[in-house]
Amino acid sequence: MVARFRPVKQLIKRCLQYLAAYAGVRMHFMYKPKILILMYHRILPANDRRAQLEEPGMIVTPETFRSHVSMLKQHFNIIHLSKWLELKNSGAELPERACAITFDDGWADNFEFAFPILKELDAPATVFVVSDMIGTSRQFWPERLAQIVTCIAKDHPDQWSHTALDWLKNPATRYQFTTVAPTQEELGELISNAKALSDDEIHDRLNIIEHVLNLQGQINKPDLLNWEQLSEMNTSGLIEIGSHTCNHIRLSNEVDNVVLEYEIIASKKLIEKRTGQAVKTFCFPNGNYSAGALELVRKNYVGAVSTKKGWNTAASDSCLLHRIGVHEDIARDKTAFFARLSGWM
């Protein structure tokens, strides 16, 4: 029965995309100057091994990214986020149809695949990096979780009954913990369920799994930017570097002031020391922030971005700017891309 109605649902979705693509962006252009801020994470070919262990919402292929930037160049004035913020904060006239491209986390594939396209099309962007992870073998916990679960399914399925794995078996996930590795959608569910725990708790539990199952030598290391790559991007004049904290922790109410100051202020100082350039913008990991975190960001940065969806005007809070997240599944062609930009879908 579900299969019978799938083509109808797809047709309805496509019609809604055409409506949003045609009317949504144009409505934004009709009113006072706004800025559209795009949020990307990883730029990876579909057949790249790294793409197989990521959540669906994290990836855009190089081909799709090139088409995105080309379309943006035709319809928007692409500008550095910090430049727009400085104009806004000074009360100066804002550019029409402004757009800023941003990347979260500091993945090496931003240098490998995105940077050449940005140079080719002469498009500026901001890369938000996690200062203490640059050039290290450390991993973000979602990638650790994805690799561990996939490794167990392929090589150690008999270990699914181990008590160290019980916390992963949330009834809300569709994954069955078998010899078959989870799909990207199932990985997304596992990661979403884990967010009920703090970052430290998740890392601690993953450490236990790696230790008791002796997986340390079987988990691939991350693919993050190093300082040399970051410097080359920064000195090009196209790429500005922003802070994404020191360790990518969620800046929630449970985080004390000492940690907040380190994550927010020390990250800025280290990046500035290593690049020789001022760090003007900040990105809240996972979009989480406490009142104390927001106050520190206001004191130390020109502005900051959140993960809340939408466009921004001169009246927007400079330290809680909205963005539109973009990934392959929802923006692989022109109609879908512009429908996403509208903020309606």
Q: Would you list the SSEs in sequence order as H and E? A: HEEEHEHEHEHHHHEHEHEEEH
Q: In CATH, what is the homologous superfamily of the largest domain?
A: Glycoside hydrolase/deacetylase
Q: Please, how many helices?
A: 11
Quaternary assembly: single chain
Count of all domains:
2
Mean pLDDT: 91
Any overview of this molecule?
By secondary structure, this protein is an alpha/beta fold. The chain folds into 2 domains: 33-137 and 241-341, TIM Barrel (Alpha-Beta Barrel), CATH 3.20.20.370; 141-218, no CATH class. The protein has 11 helices and 11 strands. The strands form 2 sheets. Strands 1, 4, 5, 6, 7, 8, 9, 10 and 11 form a 9-stranded mixed sheet that branches. The longest helix is centred in the N-terminal third of the chain and has 29 residues, at 2-30. The chain starts with a helix and ends with a helix. The mean pLDDT is 91.
Short précis:
The chain is α/β, with parallel strands linked by helices.
Keywords:
11 helices; 44% helix; alpha/beta; 2 domains; TIM Barrel; 345 residues; nine-stranded mixed β-sheet
Question: Which secondary structure elements does this structure contain, and how are they paired or packed?
Answer:
Blueprint: H1 2-30, E1 34-40, E2 42-43, E3 59-60, H2 62-75, E4 77-78, H3 81-90, E5 98-105, H4 108-121, E6 125-129, H5 141-155, H6 184-194, H7 199-212, H8 227-235, E7 239-243, H9 257-275, E8 281-283, H10 291-300, E9 303-309, E10 312-313, E11 321-325, H11 334-341
Parallel strand pairs: 1-5, 1-11, 2-3, 4-5, 5-6, 6-7, 8-9, 9-11
Antiparallel strand pairs: 1-10
Helix pairs in contact: 1-11, 2-4, 5-7, 9-10
